[in-house]
Design brief:
115 residues; 4-stranded mixed sheet; two-stranded antiparallel sheet; 6 strands; globular
């Protein structure tokens, strides 16, 4: 049920993408408190301009059926920004994160919905 869609302005090799998805999945599961077997992570590249500059940037869209709140969102922001800085060299001030709680009836899976 938790979903993290990460877009970055960097061109990533397959290995670099692979090196991101597992730790991002673990971060989401640990911070939100949901089983990792339900976490989905997608990483892609996109043209980005932030603050009028084309220097490396990223956007993380995080959605979940519950589990998101101010404290959790701050923890997710800190851990995701740290990972992106450590692995890709993206400065935390070049990362935006969006958090959305989704109702169970509006989240589909396995030919149905969660609600």
């Amino acid at each position: 049920m938790p979903l993290l869609i990460l877009q970055t302005s960097l061109r990533l090799s397959n290995q670099e993408r692979y090196n991101l998805v597992a730790p991002l999945s673990k971060i989401v599961a640990e911070c939100i408190g949901k089983p990792e077997r339900f976490v989905m992570v997608a990483v892609s590249e996109a043209a980005m301009l932030m603050g009028g500059a084309e220097t490396p940037a990223a956007y993380a869209d995080i959605r979940s059926i519950g589990g998101l709140n101010g404290a959790v969102n701050r923890k997710l922001s800190e851990r995701i920004c740290t990972l992106l800085h450590d692995q890709l060299g993206i400065s935390p001030d070049r990362v935006y994160l969006g958090f959305s709680n989704v109702s169970a009836e509006n989240w589909g899976w396995d030919s149905g919905t969660f609600g």
